[in-house]
Write a structure and sequence with these properties.
Helix content: 25-40%
Number of strands: 8
Number of helices: 12
Largest sheet: 8 strands, parallel, barrel
Strand order of the largest sheet: 1-2-3-4-5-6-7-8
Structural class: alpha/beta
Strand content: 5-15%
Shape: elongated
Radius of gyration: 23 Å
Oligomer: single chain
Bound molecules: 3-methyl-2-oxobutanoic acid
Order of helices and strands: HEHEHHEHEHEHHEHEEHHH
Distance between the termini: 52 Å
Length: 294
């Protein structure tokens, strides 16, 4: 299913994403279109999102919470990420596929981290990787870029730091904290990231960072002034997520639809209404006669 990126075939590439950085004037209006990104974890979802024209599909380690049922992203393994990235890549023709580096895959040594990112590209088919953390990731991002692996940074609320942060809280609310988030964003840009996710921070801080950086910012819970937006697929379509954060806009209610379908199926099977004769295969007349006459 995948398509080699070359100019003109519609495949979204890293330079395409970079070129979508909002410029302060509307001199080039077609360049002002915000970047769209949704998480995806499997083949059918990737196909549907890709057909809908989403620019970037993020195989997020949110996989751990919305698909695998963990209460944080920490247990997600590199093999989990490779498995799901492969499925997403098979369902994607146009969008840029970005895979998260899961917790533990870039915390031991730089050499091992590069090896792990290479696996996401070689085995998973990722076209870029996302790494949580700001100033602390400078050397890692430099090494990944040297290894020809495009990097998306991720600052503000970084869910892999849930234990250190004491929960999933809005970041950058004091002036010191806001300055640190801005330093983190500048650091990932300076290290060579081609985009940065800004998660859970005041709109004003995200707007300031977006204005200061040359690379696109992709916001989640960071207000409307970022160069693009990302949401977790399950939140967006209302699919078995328990807690709806303030920044989530739910565009569908798949939970209700799936429950309705499953309840109806149970009723139909229990009562004998499913399957009907029309939903059954039939023997040929000849076979029927042979069986009956035996
Ligand atoms: O893992 C994920 O889905 C993410 C997004 C929330 C940005 O990192």
């Amino acid at each position: 299913m995948s398509v080699v990126p070359h100019a003109g075939n519609g495949k979204i590439t890293v330079p395409d994403i970079l070129s979508r950085k909002t410029v302060p004037t509307s001199a080039i209006p077609e360049k002002q279109q915000k970047i769209t990104c949704i998480t995806a974890y499997d083949y059918p979802t990737a196909r549907l999102l890709d057909d809908a024209g989403i620019d970037m599909l993020l195989v997020g380690d949110s996989l751990g919470m919305v698909v695998l049922g963990y209460d944080s992203t920490l247990p997600v393994t590199l093999d989990d990420m490779i498995h799901h990235t492969r499925a997403v890549r098979r369902g994607t023709r146009r969008a840029l596929v970005v895979a998260d580096m899961p917790y533990g895959s870039f915390h031991v040594s730089l050499d091992e981290s590069v090896r792990n990112a290479v696996r996401l590209v070689k085995e998973g088919g990722a076209e870029a990787v996302k790494v949580e953390g700001g100033e602390r990731r400078i050397e890692l991002i430099v090494r990944l870029v040297e290894a020809e692996i495009p990097v998306v940074g991720h600052v503000g609320l970084t869910p892999q730091s849930v234990n250190a942060l004491g929960g999933f809280h809005v970041q950058g609310k004091t002036s010191d904290a806001a300055r640190q988030v801005e330093r983190d964003a500048r650091a990932v840009e300076a290290a060579g990231a081609f985009a940065v996710v800004l998660e859970s921070m005041p709109r004003e801080l995200a707007a300031r960072i977006t204005e200061k950086l040359r690379i696109p910012t992709i916001g989640i819970g960071a207000g409307p002034d970022c160069d693009g937006q990302v949401l977790v697929f399950h939140d967006l379509v209302g699919y078995a997520t328990e807690h709806k954060a303030k920044f989530v806009r739910q565009y569908a209610n798949l939970s209700a639809e799936i429950s309705r379908a499953a309840t109806q199926y149970c009723e139909d099977v229990s009562s004998g209404r499913f399957p009907s004769d029309l939903e059954s295969y039939h023997s040929s007349t000849e076979l029927r006669e042979r069986v009956v006459t035996r």
